[in-house]
Design brief:
Blueprint: E1 17-28, E2 35-46, E3 50-54, H1 61-68, E4 76-81, E5 84-85, H2 91-98, E6 102-106, H3 117-127, H4 133-143, H5 159-171, E7 177-181, H6 189-206, E8 209-213, H7 217-220, E9 225-230, E10 233-238, E11 244-246
Parallel strand pairs: 3-8, 3-9, 6-7, 7-8
Antiparallel strand pairs: 1-2, 1-4, 4-5, 9-10, 10-11
Length: about 250
């Protein structure tokens, strides 16, 4: 596990929290055949913490990330992220709340094929009203080692380079939180290791809170804290001293 200095203990006070969720539920499907995805999640994540979410397929970890990042509305419960109360927001409200607060890195990159690397990083900032977006995009791409690929399109980039663009896009606005859902899932082992090193480095430089969804125990061990989900509930949560606490 990492040795992030002076990380506050869970429950140390709301002013230190990046995420606070209470009795969070998510139910999908038709009314006659509902499927419970999340079943009463309670979770606090401290500012600057690096958290790994583990669990088998279908455990609810990607759905939890979607709700916490504002990509999905919870069915019930409350969730406060980076100072914004997501509960009750419609899709437009969630989109506005995400801007500048939350960066997201996904397994499939999701780069726009008709835009260069610089444009892929700059455009989201431009849409949110930020200034000097091209200069900021250039600086962020240089920081992830792509200063020589600024004007290249996604089809001209390797998988690892595309994921670096995605990381730059997520970190350029200096968000308070970064969510990464299986960020190395489409990469070979060597390239994946480089991407994770890059992601951790950018997080350390920006001071953002980082939540990573992964199946890789070795990656989880690099994080400050590991939460394991099973069947839509928190199964285990590592304590500050490294012991594992079974969820009550």
């Amino acid at each position: 596990m990492t040795d992030t200095p002076n990380a506050p203990a869970p429950g140390a006070g709301s002013r230190t929290l990046a995420i606070s969720a209470r009795n969070l539920t998510l139910t999908l499907g038709q009314e006659k055949h509902p499927v419970e995805i999340l079943k009463g999640i309670d979770l606090d994540v401290q500012r600057g913490e690096v958290l790994a979410l583990l669990g088998p397929s279908g455990s609810g970890k990607s759905s939890l990330m979607a709700v916490l990042s504002g990509l999905e509305r919870a069915t019930s419960g409350s969730v406060k992220v980076a100072g914004a109360e997501f509960s009750g927001m419609d899709e437009d409200g969630l989109a506005k709340a995400r801007r500048g607060r939350i960066g997201i890195v996904l397994q499939a990159f999701h780069l726009l094929p008709t835009m260069t690397a610089t444009e892929n990083v700059a455009t989201p900032m431009e849409l949110s009203g930020a200034k000097d977006v091209r200069a900021r995009a250039t600086a962020e791409l240089e920081a992830v080692g792509l200063g020589h690929r600024l004007d290249h399109y996604p089809t001209q980039l390797s998988g690892g380079e595309q994921q670096r663009v995605a990381i730059a896009r997520a970190t350029a606005p200096r968000p308070e939180l970064i969510f990464a859902d299986e960020p190395t899932g489409n990469l070979d082992a060597a390239t994946g290791a480089e991407i994770i090193d890059m992601l951790f480095a950018r997080r350390a430089e920006t001071g953002a809170t980082l939540v990573i969804i992964t199946h890789d125990p070795s990656l989880a061990e690099r994080c400050d804290r590991i939460i394991t989900l099973a069947d839509g509930v928190i199964d285990t949560d590592t304590a500050a001293n490294g012991q594992i606490l079974a969820a009550e």
